[in-house]
Amino acid sequence: MSRSGLLARTAAVILLGGCSSGEISEDDPSDARDDIAVETGATDSAVDSAPTADVGKEADAVAPTAPPCLPGDRTEWSGTIPKTVVAISVCSACGESYVVAANGSSNPAEVTLDDGTKSIKATVPATGKVTSGRIADKESDGSVTVCGTSDGASGCLPVAPKNQKYCDPFRSITKLRAERIDQGVDYGGAGPIYAIGPGTIDLYRNRTDSGWPGGTFMSYKITAGPAAGKVVYLAENIDLNPKLKSGSYVFNGTVLGTLVNASPDSEIGWGVAGAGYTAEHSCYVEGCSTPLGFNFNALLVCLKTPSGKSTGATTCCPPSSAYPADWCTLLDKWQ
To answer: pTM value?
Structure first.
């Protein structure tokens, strides 16, 4: 090292409160660095005690995988609630929804479900899971709004998931009686009859249809799932829901009408869009069990509705390939 370079380094040490001897070994330049470190207080212990760059901060928490719905229920939405580390599955049952939530934070989180008239809240344990209570879906469109909060940040799902599950339409009938299979399937008993799944009311005739015993005929077109595009009819001794009309949205929580426990009871089956008759109308003979009557009965059985009964006469109408044969397999895939 040159003499001028050595003098410059010695001056730097003196200005920073250098060593008492004032000598720097030319053979070991690290002596100067050690002196500077000591004099400026940058010891190992001082470095260890200095603040770190957000080590372990909750903002670094990661949302886990969304947990599954309960067996038999349909997943309508799955993912992470925006701005949170809460992963959820929005699950639909018959007429109601719930969430299964998992929390990626070491602090408790919250999930809220709202149907437009009331809300329920569930606390998700730190790094844990919870299944919320159930809430009736919004009457107008079968949806539920879901929001969440974790570590002080809140967000809501970008959409309000709609309940699109298929359900037994006679699940709440008192003393339900499965009767004959004809153009559709006949059932007796008393109580509310629900829509099978999501759809739109086509015809609405409440005690005004002279072509049907009992005077009631309603039809609705299924809009999602394995029966999408098909029309379902409901007829006979039923008082229709006065809140409904042609064009109304329905889903499995919509009460279509109330079955009166008296003859002629009720009939349900495949219909025709815009027409007040059944899909087997042109070939039906009184007392015959039709192919589409059996087909609709198969759908109901897959939904856990008691099976109708064959009349034994089955030759009045030809088979139809326009309707799926294996409803149970299709429903398993859907929900």
So the answer is: 0.81
